[in-house]
């Protein structure tokens, strides 16, 4: 089954919700650094959860390019479809 | 005009805040005299050093000093050149020979620092389309080497064999993989379950590097490191190490049995594009390494001192980073930054130097890190414990009794 950014997004937001300590509304445009203000340890836990959910690897070196939830959804779909 | 320093303002504010509280500055301490591997003079007062990496106390060894002095006189103060140009002297070759003998391996390569050894190995060994799999608590030099190269970087949970296995399974089977482990993790002083981890890495077809910076000299029958103590010597592809800890000077190295190892001398940029170590340094290192091969009594004493320190600090009610002494590093946990700084300053007032680990190095933890030396006498350890108790009272640090 082929995944797209849009099909990944709703589940991805569910995974991120427990990390949303500020209780803001999450969307594809939500920025991890600016809006969620996640520290580096939290980012690592979140990345591990996303990896486990989709059974993929999100390489550490890719993370600086993934600014928003939408960016991650796109990356997950791309890796999963490879 | 934008000031490029503006981005550092939060750090400047934090530091100035700490200083404004009248606190002694933990980051600009000056050792006025070094009396021995365990004693120094600070502000005109003698203190006991319990925060150095001088595990085997080799810095004032008479043979080491003599070798350095001879090389300084005969070969001059510096090489003024790269290892691959004019910077390889007889002393560098002898130092690499000492490492080959110490590790009983075919190849050894000496870098100018341990940091550069990791920088060079990580950035050169894995390229685009290949993977480096590293422990989340890896040293900055490993992370920086990864950032310098083009491999995909995969982290696993600190010391978790299960997480390492899970991540290795997700990497394409035919992709080149390098698993990076450390014998002793220096912040808390815990050791890696190398037997299990190396087995998992090998099963996945990965090459394995173990950084033994904080283990060389006193783990294993020959002092080679945790990988020797764990019985996986024939499974490890590279061992990284440093001269700035047990060896007692400065420099870094990689040893290996891989037949093609020497090509790394051309492809490790931190090896090629920097000056080689001064002749006196490699002479001190070679002499020290050869003496460490037979330093069984020192090894035994270091372990006894580390275990005694751990047991007595724990009995006094301090909260420690590990349940038992796993290495020569004993990390004392502090409740917050303020009391960490207070306790550190109280220890200096008592005449004890330990490392105050900045929270940037250990997110979520405030540590006062002690490291033992083979030259710490039993009486010195007793004195350190007594001073710790008095410092805790002075700093208002609650102890659990």
TrEMBL record, chain A:
Domain Carrier: 3-80
Source taxonomy: Bacteria, Pseudomonadati, Pseudomonadota, Alphaproteobacteria, Sphingomonadales
PROSITE patterns: CARRIER (PS50075)
Highest taxon listed in the record's lineage: Bacteria
Protein name: Carrier domain-containing protein
Classification via Pfam families: PP-binding
From TrEMBL, chain B:
Family membership noted in the UniProt record: Belongs to the class-II pyridoxal-phosphate-dependent aminotransferase family.
Organism: Pacificimonas flava
Domain Aminotransferase class I/classII large: 47-388
Protein name per UniProt: 8-amino-7-oxononanoate synthase
GO molecular function: pyridoxal phosphate binding; transferase activity
SUPFAM superfamilies from the UniProt entry: PLP-dependent transferases
Record InterPro entries: Aminotrans_II_pyridoxalP_BS, Aminotransferase_I/II_large, AON_synthase_class-II, PyrdxlP-dep_Trfase, PyrdxlP-dep_Trfase_major, PyrdxlP-dep_Trfase_small
Cofactor(s) needed by this chain: pyridoxal 5'-phosphate
PROSITE patterns: AA_TRANSFER_CLASS_2
UniProt cross-references to Pfam families, sorted A to Z: Aminotran_1_2
Keywords attached to this entry: Pyridoxal phosphate, Transferase
Coiled-coil parts of chain: none
């Amino acid at each position: 089954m082929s995944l797209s950014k849009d099909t990944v997004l709703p589940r991805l937001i569910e995974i991120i919700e427990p990390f949303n300590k500020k209780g803001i509304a999450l969307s594809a445009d939500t920025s991890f650094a600016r809006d969620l203000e996640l520290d580096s340890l939290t980012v690592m836990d979140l990345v591990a959860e996303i990896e486990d959910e989709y059974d993929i690897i999100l390489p550490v070196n890719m993370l600086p390019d993934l600014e928003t939830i939408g960016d991650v959804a796109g990356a997950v779909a791309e890796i999963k479809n490879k | 005009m934008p000031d490029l320093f503006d981005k550092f303002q939060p750090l400047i504010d934090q530091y100035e805040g700490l200083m404004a509280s009248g606190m002694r500055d933990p980051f600009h301490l000056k050792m006025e005299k070094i009396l021995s591997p365990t004693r120094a003079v600070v502000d005109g007062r003698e203190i006991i050093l319990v925060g150095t990496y001088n595990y085997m106390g080799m810095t004032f060894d008479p043979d080491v000093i003599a070798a350095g002095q001879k090389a300084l006189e005969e070969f001059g103060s510096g090489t003024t050149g790269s290892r691959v140009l004019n910077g390889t002297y007889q002393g560098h070759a002898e130092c690499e020979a000492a490492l080959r003998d110490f590790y009983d391996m075919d190849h050894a390569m000496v870098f100018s620092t341990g940091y550069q050894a990791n920088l060079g190995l990580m950035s050169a060994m894995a390229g685009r389309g290949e993977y480096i799999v590293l422990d989340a608590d890896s040293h900055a030099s490993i992370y920086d080497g990864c950032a310098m190269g083009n491999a995909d970087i995969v982290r696993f949970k600190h010391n978790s064999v299960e997480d390492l296995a899970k991540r290795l399974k997700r990497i394409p089977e035919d992709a080149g993989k390098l698993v990076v482990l450390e014998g002793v993790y220096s912040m808390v002083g815990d050791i890696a379950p190398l037997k299990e981890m190396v087995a998992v890495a090998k099963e996945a077809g990965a090459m394995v590097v173990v950084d033994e910076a904080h283990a060389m000299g006193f783990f294993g029958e020959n002092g080679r490191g945790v990988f020797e103590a764990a019985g996986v010597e024939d499974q490890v592809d590279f061992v990284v190490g440093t001269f700035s800890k047990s060896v007692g000077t400065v420099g870094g190295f990689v040893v290996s049995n891989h037949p093609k190892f020497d090509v790394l001398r051309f492809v490790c940029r931190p090896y090629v594009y920097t000056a080689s170590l001064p002749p006196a340094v490699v002479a001190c290192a070679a002499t020290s390494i050869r003496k460490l091969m037979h330093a069984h009594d020192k090894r035994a004493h270091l372990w006894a001192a580390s275990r005694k320190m751990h047991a007595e600090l724990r009995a006094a009610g301090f909260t420690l980073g590990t349940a038992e002494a796993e290495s020569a590093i004993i990390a004392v946990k502090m409740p917050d930054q303020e009391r960490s700084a207070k306790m550190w300053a109280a220890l200096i007032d008592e005449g004890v130097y330990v490392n105050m680990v900045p929270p940037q190095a250990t997110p979520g933890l405030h540590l006062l890190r002690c490291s033992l030396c083979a030259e710490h006498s039993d009486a010195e350890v007793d004195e350190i414990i007594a001073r710790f108790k008095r410092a805790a009272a002075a700093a208002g640090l609650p102890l659990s009794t």
